Amino acid sequence: MQDEKPRRSQAERRAETKSALLKAARELIVEKGYAETGTPEIVKQANVTRGALYHHFEDKTDLMRALVHQEAEAVAADIDADTNTSQTPLEAFMAGAQAYFSALSVPGRAKILLLEGPTVLGLQEMTEVDRITGGATLLEGLRHSARNGFVQNIPLEPLADLLSAAFDRAALEIANGADRSSYETATKALLAGVLKTD
Questions:
Q1: Which of 6, 62, 93, 168 has the smallest number of CB atoms closer than 10 Å to its CB?
Q2: Taking a C-beta distance cutoff of 8 angstroms, is the pair 54, 75 a contact?
Q3: Assign residue 181 a region: left if phi > 0, alpha if psi is -120 to 50, beta otherwise?
Q4: pLDDT for 197
Q5: What is the pTM of this model?
């Protein structure tokens, strides 16, 4: 007698379909770019119907939005895992920066978050995504440092925006093959200049 596979619930089937669509979209967008990727290709690669795509996402932009959120949340989780409260502010920020550089070195991630995402969703929406994921971690770290006297007389939100932009540029260069150690050295010097350590 052959063992029967347990029947999947409708919720499980929906989750699998959504996951397949995101995986297919990610592969195609990384390979070809958002503009050159069509929804017929995505559904074919995901092995689902066009109706399934529109059941889960309003359109291709909405699918890209979900992909950006998925990637940004993975980055934030990596940063959280590599920083802790026992570190000095400089150690914590460097650990966060190094975790960010590693997370953005995952093949295709820098392209999705730093190139395609802003082009498709716009700067304002990407800024909001950043604020609710990794950018929130950065700003909270600056607030914590300010409360403890390590950041003085610098407006924190603009500082977080500037540091975030610097980290993005470094991560993009590293993802494209630049020498990581030189960017880490420059990042440490930048952070040391921001953080009062004496």
A1: 6
A2: no
A3: alpha
A4: 61
A5: 0.87
